[in-house]
Amino acid sequence: MRKLKLIWDFRGPDSLKTAQHHEIHLKEYIAIEKLSLNITGFEVISDNHTIAFMVVNDDEMRPVRDALKPHRGQLYTEQP
Q1: Furthest C-alpha separation in the chain
Q2: pLDDT of res. 46
Q3: Its domain of life (predicted)?
């Protein structure tokens, strides 16, 4: 099954703290909704741009997307 990475972009000098905090809420959502995957994280893109993300199976994407409104998404490839 395809895995999709749902992404939220945060910009500005507080983007790192905001993304870290957003990841906490993503983990809470995963637990409440009992989603099949528990992959979340954040990545610093630059000093003023950080992303938070969660990975979902293709069949769970629509309800999660509609509830959490990510800014964008992409196919997820597992890191070695």
Answers
A1: 37
A2: 97
A3: Bacteria
Sign of torsion, CA 3 44 38 56?
negative
Q: How many domains does the chain have?
A: 1
Quick one: which of 55, 57, 60 has its CA closest to 42? 55
Residue 77 lies in a domain: no
* Residue 39 within any structural domain of the chain: yes
Q: Check if the beta carbon of residue 42 is closer than 8 Å to that of residue 10.
A: no
Tell me if 80 is assigned to some domain. Answer: no
Whether the pTM exceeds 0.90: the reply is yes
In a domain, 78, yes or no: no
Among 4, 25, 28, 18, residue whose Cα is nearest residue 51? 18
Phi, psi values for residue 27, rounded to 5°: -65, -40
